[in-house]
Amino acid sequence: MRLLSTCFFLLTTLLLSAQADEKRLEQALFELPDVSFKKVSQPGQQPLQYALRIKQPLDHKDPSRGYFQQRVILTHHGFGQPTLMQTQGYDLFNGKNELELAFDANHLNIEHRYFGESKPDSIQWKYLSLEQVTADLHHINQLFRSLYTGKWISTGISKGGQTTIFYKYFYPNDVDVWVPYVAPFNNGLEDKRIYTFLDTIGTPECRKKIQDFQIFLLQNEEKALEKLHWYAKGAGLSFQYLDNSLGKAFEYTVLEYSFSFWQWGSQCADIPLGQPLDSCLAHLLKVSDLGFFADAGMSNYASHYYQAATQMGYYGYNIAPFRKYLKHFTANPLATFAPKSAGQVVYDNSLNEKVDQWLREKGNNMIYIYGGNDTWSADRITPSARVNSKSYILPGKDHGKARIKYMDKAMQKDVKQTLAQWLGVTPNFDGGGK
To answer: 49 and 18, same structural domain?
Structure first.
């Protein structure tokens, strides 16, 4: 009887504490300037979660240019807990992050400017710059530092990881530790380190099988297009951006194949070389999506392509092994498709050069995580001996598997000790997460 009374007392105490925490948090959110919120977690559900809208100026140097609302999901674990800023590179992905779980951290999951619901009424492309993007993050950081006074971490995956790196450069004192995952740092519009990677990754037999598969498809382009015409029609794909050329989209898809093959962990044994064309096309579309080069894909990633074509850089396709089979390309095509509404865009590599040098000299407290088989690891950052940052390359892992939870025990232990040393808080990586 006494045990039941004790359990009831503890449960009541926990419920009252959670209700007090919720009331305190909502009062604090109400008082924050530029913030509106709506609770999305269910009554009694823990942790508390809120959908936020943050008022952001289009131009942080001149707020008179107008504003937009930036979407953020706040997951609250406790006022005394560490706080994680996840810098998305695209639309908001509302899932648990492994660092959130490892530290039981408050999680500010931030949608990127000009993506998803975080868009102004009319797109003015000149305000989609890394200076403005990182100023958005700084504004959010400064708002929530009044609520969360513990240690802060910034993280992001892929393009979100790139954003994390630039955020570090522009606002090096905003957080305590920075953890970009699978984040390339490109050295131009056509970063040729990608070509070296694709020419050396895996076994010679696998690389030959990949190339032979691409050549087979290009040799059978006319027959392939007859079949893909009906596939595209059924999927509602159009190709106005590529001059209404399904053929051009097909050749892009074939050239993209080797990049995507390694990025997403495809297996050489699955390449249907020597099988009927239908089987080969089905495999191609599974690995390298034709829709990526259709109008809808171009539209969805317009902001990404604008950033790549103006500041961030990207990659291209080495057509040397395929030149005699191609009908639409005589020089290496770029994988950037800047939106036509942006007009003539000009790439400027000067910021990348500044950031690269700065990271070598002052890029401390950063943990870079890459997959050994991920194509994007070709463009990885290797910390210099002048900083205390670390880079971890997970052997055999692809873009989606290069995570702390997939590290071997020795590597994971080293990451754990490093984070504990820098933050004074020991993480627990047994809980999973993205």
So the answer is: no
Q: What is the pTM of this model?
A: 0.94
**Number of structural domains found in the chain:** 3
Report the CATH number at residue 71.
Answer: 3.40.50.1820
pLDDT tens digits along 193-219: 999 999 999 999 999 999 999 999 999
**Do 189 and 120 form a contact (C-beta atoms < 8 A)?**
no
In the sheet where 177-181 sits, what is the strand order?
35-39, 48-57, 67-76, 106-110, 83-87, 152-157, 177-181, 367-371, 390-394
pLDDT tens for residues 54-63?
999 999 999 9
Query: How many CB atoms within 10 Å of residue 385?
Result: 6
Helix (H) or strand (E) holding 159: helix 159-170
**Whole-angstrom distance, CA of residue 154 vs CA of residue 175:** 7
Q: Is residue 430 part of a domain?
A: no
Residue 400: exposure state from Cβ atoms within 10 A (0-12, 13-18, ≥19):
middle
Residue at 1 is within a domain? yes
Looking at 288-408, list the stretches that DSSP marks H as alpha helix, in order from N- to C-terminal side. Answer: 295-300, 302-307, 350-362
* Tokens read off for 19: 């209700």
What's the domain range around 21?
1-29
Domain limit, last residue, from 342, 362, 382:
342
pLDDT digits (tens, 9 = 90+) for 281-310: 999 999 999 999 999 999 999 999 999 999
Q: Which of the listed residues 342, 368, 383 is the one where a domain comes to its end?
A: 342
